[in-house]
Hints:
The protein is mainly alpha-helical. The chain is built from four helices and no strands. The chain has helices at 7-18, 32-55, 60-85, 93-123. The two termini are 18 Å apart. The mean pLDDT is 87.
Amino acid sequence: MLRTLSIKDIQSISETFFIPVFPNFHFQYSFMEDACVDLAIDSFLLGAKYSRLGVRGEDDISIKERANREVKFLVKELYNFMYGWVHDPKAKEEKMFEAVDGFVVHWWEKGFETGKTRLLLRLQ
Length: 124
């Protein structure tokens, strides 16, 4: 499953979400690089885990509701990490939370879709 992920994709998506919040954000060699990679992988794998429910016939909305608690835990984990390290007065807390939430949800959805595709191909 992890073969479909690339560091370049994680880097690109990280910059897409976090540059609007942190204007001086550079993914590579930053303190946030490890945290972003770790949480992207965790979110991706969590989405892939829940994809089994979609293949079994459960609708996507109810699956997302089921996964919500675990996704929010990952969001809080990355947000607290960033909040503890970033002392950028230009970064507003609400915008930072929205960026972190979008980042985690993006990787969860990507893992979910990748997992569903792989499971469906295996069933055929």
